[in-house]
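Re: [help] complex structure
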Amino acid sequence: MHPGSGFTIYGPGFRKRGQYVESDDTLRTRCHREIEQGKPGFSKSLKNRLAVRGILESGRYDTAAAKKALGIEGPFMQTKRGKIKSGVLVPREDIKRAIVKFWPLEQVQAWQQGEDVKPENITSFIEKYKREYHSAQLSQSHGKSFRRMFEEVYPTEKYPGLYDSVTSRTISSAIDMRSLAASLQSRFNNGLPITQASLRYSADSSDKRLYNQIITLITNPPTDTPIMFAEKRRSYNKVVAQLTGLDEEDISPLRGSRNYIAALTEEIVHVFFRWASLLGIPLGNHAPQRDIFRTGEERKFHCNGKECRADLRISNNAVEVKAGIGSLQEKELEDLIDKYTPGANSWLTGHSIEASTVIFHTHPRFYSHAVPRIRDAGISIIEYEWFFSKLKQIVKAIKQCHSSAIEDIRPRIGSLDYLVCLSEELVVNPTRIVKESNAERREWSFHFLKSLADKARELQDGS
Amino acid sequence: MALEKLVGGKIISYKGESFLLVEKSLEEMGDNPITRYLAEHKQNLSLDKVRKRFPGLHHVPKNAMLYFDVETTGLSGNHAIFSIGMTHLTEGINTSCLFARDYWEERAVLKYFLDLLPEHHAFFTYNGDSFDIPRLEKRIRNAHGLLHDSKSLRDFMNSAHIDLYHEMRKACPGLQDYTLRSVEKLVFGLSRREDIASSKVPEAYQEYINGTDGEEKIARVIQHNMRDTLTLAAIFAYLCREKH
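Output below.
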């Protein structure tokens, strides 16, 4: 014993001058410090000291006994399911006992005989037996696998498919590839994305199921696997391409696809107002106006100290176009209200923004939640159905009154009805035109829409 | 001058969309070695001769054979198909062309073509195994989403597709090359000097879409496409001839 309450241990197996062990207070302080540091376990030197301190309790190197004597708990391990005590492992037998208690043999046998009994899910087991599960899963001495421990209790040879059943895993051999391919093709043909992220993070559980099936085919291919899944470098896109017969580049949307959809929609809206103005077609609150600005300084304004651009300026009114797939987020909504509340901001030319209109050229599910707040802010809304009916009216009028002018437009267009089809496509199936295989049509559409708007201005200036 | 007047076609409205359809009989295709050969050896296309040469076609009625060829804006699957030339054998020999006046009309052309397939029982192309059919499949499925199930274009064709390129290689070994031009020249003695070169076809279409006076050039492309399909019928008649 030393004056500072530390002591030296002598005896066989120790060095001649003995092994010094700090006082209990010092050890306790050190333990608490390391626990506070949030390390997964105690440091090696502290564990050695605790082990030596354990000799005084049980006559052998014993960290657990030392911790008990010092009143130390922890450290805890941070796992997916929360904090668990890392220092103390649940013995193998206890884990097995917990498994049998949770999944009783009678129940398992009933399940095996095909009775209508579904073994409890593993997540419920983890909630109830957190330490047992993590001891099996994390500890080297327990084989670092809960599955291994589970299969010691219920061997796969005797109970085939039991573990897959309790873990609700998608079993590759049970995947109907034809139906999986058909589901993916159907999504693709309906313009819904089939990318990894879109299925994985979808709120719809059937989408997640598709994702799980594809991933299972990649990570755990069936034994009678076609060559495509047996390749070493298989990836999500490769497997989906093989299943559906699509090109890999068509599976992932083109980079910047959102911008393409927005740019095309803005051009359609520009054409819409330009020709409505030329033809004298009234558009709700918008009387036909000649002063329409799509480019240049006229459509710029300041909002919260930043320079902003309206998609279109009609006289002193601002027009904002919302298009594409994706719900209107809170931040976007606030931004929209900040920018376009009538009278709140002024154009760089000095005039106040007298009125504003948001055109939702998209499905109502993406914006319906925001409509009351936008209306409360005094911003008017044009929804797609109304826009579409007016666009049809405009196209009909152009064909009647200006067919020869349309023939002069370059790039050429076979029929102006395309304008209506394109508008519909951008709402119903927006991912189609942004595919790489439609690059030519996309570029042509963009240039054609610009030329069509220019033609309206030219005719207006000439009249 | 409007293209439809220039080529003697008409604008077809099909399922809400439109495209240009040009139809001509063999006589209207002008006098050249191919049309002469077809007129003289029409009997080679009689069912008994066809079935004798290609026993696999025993189930095919005469008027259910379609010879077709596509024109594209480039060689990859991402390039549009703007023209499909076809030759049918009905009472006489008729040739037609489905032409997309812009990139959107490609959809109507493909829809129309797809709907024609069930009416036919045998299909003939030149190098279609490697080019025309995969290209059509890609455009129909990927660009326009017109095939809504896992059925492929070959399923529509009921597997009765004959690639005349391979048949020519078998029938006439030792030719310097087997391009359609060479076969026309070596077998039928036709030299299409006035015709537009195949490599210039995409350029001609670009000029038509973007330029101010591309009509005449594109009219030649349409003519070229229709002539190609007539050559396919002539090759088939040549293959079905009786060897002495």
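Chain B has a mean pLDDT of 87.
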